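Handout, page 2. Input:
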Amino acid sequence: MSIRYKIGYIDEDPNQVKLYKRKLRVYGFEVIGYEFHKGMTIEELMEQVYSSNIDLLMIDFRLNESNVIPFNGDVVERYVYENKPLFPHIIFTNKVDQAEPDVDDLKLIFDKEIVFPEDEGNNLRTHHFIEVLTKSIEQYKTYINGKKEKISELLDKEEAGGLNAKEKNDLLSLQNELLCLDKMSISEVPESLKSFETLEKISQARKDAEAYIQSLLEKIDDESKR
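Output:
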């Protein structure tokens, strides 16, 4: 099956990452792991996660068993929720009994041994798990893309003839909604940037970016013909 989605899997055991990379690949998921080092902070780990461009994050609960890092999956889950609140993520563990007292949302916990039983012929739970992952990813993408489309429509209208007061307010609200959904990309948004005067520059910035990309493509095309 062709790869449809990219999943990050936080587990300090590389063998576990390899195992579920193989198991999930047949369902169209590419699974990637992350590097760990002694004393790693949550911020260092999440910088890797953030730069890996994934569609969903799976988090093992018992991350501190090997004494490499000082925190468990509940800390990671809470960090994700606080910084990217709607981003799809789950706790994927065979330590469910240990995870339940510490994880805030029990619906996020999935038992590895139930989802992928030793008797792989009995895979109703596996298919349910795959469906949960797929729907979580698609719902998030649909929500984000819907916001972006509305912003694009308002920018197009602003370029064509301007926006009324309500539409300007809608544009600011949509921008703020997207910023709140991803606090990891911009740690702090100054009040001076939350104004329509700044937003008015977006359309020109977009034109400049598109022109620059087009010039690069033309340059590449010219060089390939030499």
